[in-house]
User: What shape does this take?
Amino acid sequence: MSSQHYKKKHHYETPLVKLSKSLSYVLRHHAKDEGLDIREDGYVKLDDLQEKTGKQSG
Assistant: This one.
């Protein structure tokens, strides 16, 4: 399968995929830039993440 065919087939991202990518981007690369407090063990509080990203759990 050519890469061009792959791109055409997968150009649409579901809302869940978009959310996953944006959270991964913030958590992997910009947690401090977003003002998230990273614990010593590398975790952030979900409430803090939701507050910064405007996302609410279902």
Notes: The chain has a mean pLDDT of 80. The helical segments are 3-9, 15-30, 46-53. Residues 26 and 34 are 8 Å apart (CA to CA).
